[in-house]
Amino acid sequence: MKRSLIAIVLLIGTASAASANDGKSMDANGDGTVTRAEYDAATQAAWTRMDANGDGKLSAAEAGAKGGAGWKTADADGDGQLSSAEFSAKKGAWFAMADTDKDGSLSKAELTAAKAMKH
């Protein structure tokens, strides 16, 4: 399950970029951790950026995904696109998985560990 959640995140974009820089782009207040609020704000910004045609859904092409198993898992209603709710749900599931100490924020160590799990 953990590997499929990470695969989904990588398919839909932003977490791979964030984890590549240890979450610095999401750490709005610069305190070295990414809170759930900071993560949610970054997720919403990514959604807005990726929904190129502004139709409220992400196609596989907009998300840079190839439509594989991870995409199908994220696409809860099976319509071939991700709604904002589907996108947020999968991103939230990734955050919950990465927040190993369940304190509501991601430390650099947690981000690094979550990044390593994709391999």
UniProtKB/TrEMBL annotation:
<dbReference type="InterPro" id="IPR018247">
    <property type="entry name" value="EF_Hand_1_Ca_BS"/>
</dbReference>
<keyword id="KW-0732">Signal</keyword>
<feature type="signal peptide">
    <location>
        <begin position="1"/>
        <end position="20"/>
    </location>
</feature>
<dbReference type="InterPro" id="IPR011992">
    <property type="entry name" value="EF-hand-dom_pair"/>
</dbReference>
<dbReference type="InterPro" id="IPR002048">
    <property type="entry name" value="EF_hand_dom"/>
</dbReference>
<dbReference type="GO" id="GO:0005509">
    <property type="term" value="F:calcium ion binding"/>
</dbReference>
<dbReference type="Pfam" id="PF13202">
    <property type="entry name" value="EF-hand_5"/>
</dbReference>
<feature type="domain" description="EF-hand">
    <location>
        <begin position="86"/>
        <end position="119"/>
    </location>
</feature>
<protein>
    <recommendedName>
        <fullName>EF-hand domain-containing protein</fullName>
    </recommendedName>
</protein>
